[in-house]
Amino acid sequence: MHVTLFGFVLFLHILTAIIAFMMAAIVHAGLPAMARARDVREMRSWAAILHRLEPLFPIAALILLILGAWLIHLSKGRIHWGDGWLLTSLISLIVVEGVAGAKLAPKAKAAVKAIEEAPDGPVPDSLRRTAALEPWIWYPSHVATFGFAAVVFLMSARPSGAWAVVIVIVGALIGVAVARLQLRALSAPIAVAGASRPAEAVQ
Q1: Which pLDDT belongs to residue 184?
Q2: Residue 59 to residue 190: CA distance in whole angstroms
Q3: By the 8 A CB rule, do 97 and 60 touch?
């Protein structure tokens, strides 16, 4: 069996992407679980897991970038930085990580802090809204996952520059739509509960 350096680096590149998607899967399972939690301790356990995963995503992105650059170097001219699909993938990676660092990370840290400081007992609606249903946590995380899924398609199919941009935009829009649908479904019970309290007070 003959294994080339290019093949080994490609394996590491794919493996890193798989690990990143596995971490994302945990995040996407944890966010609805936190939103549905009835006890603060249950919410706190999920928050601790998500808090540990959050700083690993930029590390995974950096490893992907380094391995990708190495693959370009090893390709001996078959792949160029100016290729449309590659340039779109690189810009997408930078934009998503920039938004995550500027908006998602601070909101996630604030949410974890609020959950940690909350007293044990039933989850207050205010905590659920500000921590478990924070849009700046849901939207960037979903856009990142579906956007990177689109990037994986670009690296596999290598479409032209215009199509590459369209594919990434479609992936990001799917992420926005999925996040919106989940937020709407998870927020509905809170809205119903809030509307029923004035009626109970009148009675």
Answers
A1: 95
A2: 36
A3: no
